[in-house]
Amino acid sequence: MHSFGYRANALLTFAVTILALLCTIGSLSDNLNTPSPSAQIEILNINWFQKQPHGNDEVSLTLNITADLQSLFTWNTKQLFIFVAAEYETPKNALNQVSLWDAIIPAKEFAKFSIHTSNKYRFIDQGHSLRGKEFNLTLHWHVMPKTGKMFANKIVMSGYHLPEDYR
Ligand SMILES: *[C@@H]1O[C@H](CO)[C@@H](O)[C@H](O)[C@H]1NC(C)=O
Ligand SMILES: *[C@@H]1O[C@H](CO)[C@@H](O)[C@H](O)[C@H]1NC(C)=O
User: Fold this and answer.
1) Residue span of the signal peptide, if any (predicted)?
2) 0.70 exceeded by the pTM?
3) CA of 116 to the centre of ligand 1 (A)
């Protein structure tokens, strides 16, 4: 006869095994889900555009950020971390990336939104190359799962320009 303790232990082991299996299936089925997120970012206004006393260019923008990231949510999604970055090339660096705004999306119901905001973080070039600069606005997301690996991706929107003159 097995003791009660032995059986309880066997039951627990079985439960843990099933749980591990479910987690594996969960992360796998998550990988099979092909999300179709969308985003548009419009520059509503250049609030000001200046050269700082020590020489770096800084610009303040008002953005209209519209996105539908609902398809990134599955039962295994804890939350999304998203950020909007300005990305541009300069003679010094092939890629300059400046984060302008970020947010945490805690649930699917908040994943479809339109927000009218000025840049939350300063858009400063480490130099003075922003006049007339062509740049991309990129919406990046990090999906934080309840179980399994975090993954990240982005939508690149191109064709934005800064003015030729400070204002
Ligand atoms: C922001 O963009 C969305 C989608 O393009 C549009 O429906 C909305 O009217 C815009 N809002 C403003 C304040 O321009
Ligand atoms: C901006 O986007 C275009 C088109 O996707 C891409 O070819 C270019 O390399 C991007 N520029 C930067 C600096 O990432």
Assistant:
1) 1-29
2) yes
3) 8
